[in-house]
Amino acid sequence: MASESLTTTDYIQHHLQNLVYGRHPDGTWGFALSPQEAADMGFWAIHVDSMGWSIGLGLVFCWLFHKAAKKATSGVPGAFQNFIEFVIEFVNNTVKDSFHGRSQLVGPLALTIFVWVFLMNLMDLLPVDLIPYSAQLFGQYVLGMDPHEVYFKIVPTTDINVTAGLALGVFVLMIYYGFKIKGVGYVREFVFHPFNHWIFIPVNLFMEVVGLLARPFSLALRLFGNMFAGEMIFILIATMYSAGLLLGIFGGFLQMGWAIFHILIITLQAFIFMVLTVVYLSMSHQDH
């Protein structure tokens, strides 16, 4: 993808642009062929690549755990069953330490979030040009498109829409359990906490609402920011391959070193997202 017709800036911008489908200003529907066209499509445009990869990786998660469940044995387990059991036990212990209510949903939800976010983050370890360049070839030779007009991102968590969607789902559960467990008392927390007097109701509302909204924002932006920064470093290192043999070799070592370090980052970000989700739901279950 880093061809002579693309400058370094063009190369970076091309990698950061999603495959967007939506309504053009003239009323027709189709894919955006430039970042400006994607911006003109507005809020209701769909990031096809992020949507496709996130759903696909979710199905991979379901298939892997379904396969492990079908082949589970009470005898000597195989390596795959050992690994799945280790993941489940790890998540289960984390939930026990962080969640202090009673719910049959929180455990499976935590497992789903951890594995799903980890799989989406894991796509960041693939070579930055591998799948996007394949998409360009498909667009050029099969669809007859200009390869520079074919955009394709493969890391869903580098898209703020994906991380915000995950955080919004957690936020809805927080509100739901708040009312389910506490009833009207959930509203009283906003008007009579931390100052238990009617004269401080406006102050309490402001503080509590800001604190409540900060939770989904922190979930979405933390995951997006860390994964976007990691992907950007991979892209910047990849630009060194077109700068000569010595810089290309040096870039290869940098890429390998950053990929090894990034394994820790993608795991840690999935873990943090899961833990914060469990903690926020635990707070919704606490009846002050």
Residue share in helix? 55-70%
Strand order of the largest sheet: 2-1-3
Order of helices and strands: HEEHEHHHHHHHH
Beta strand % = under 5%
Mean pLDDT equals 89
Biggest sheet statistics? 3 strands, antiparallel
Shape: globular
Total strands = 3
SS class: mainly alpha
Query: Could you say how many structural domains there are in total?
Result: 1
Summed up, the helix count is: 10
Query: Radius of gyration from the CA trace?
Result: 23 Å
First-residue to last-residue Cα separation:
57 Å
Flag low-confidence runs.
none
What does the model show?
The structure is a single chain. With 288 residues, the protein is mostly helical. It has one domain (8-285). It is 68% helix and 3% strand. Strands 2-1-3 form a three-stranded antiparallel beta sheet. A hairpin with a 5-residue loop joins strand 1 (20-23) and strand 2 (29-31). Helix 5 (106-122) packs antiparallel against helix 10, helix 7 runs antiparallel to helix 9 (201-238) and helix 7 packs parallel to helix 10. The protein is globular, with a radius of gyration of 23 Å. It starts with 7 loop residues before the first helix and ends with a helix.
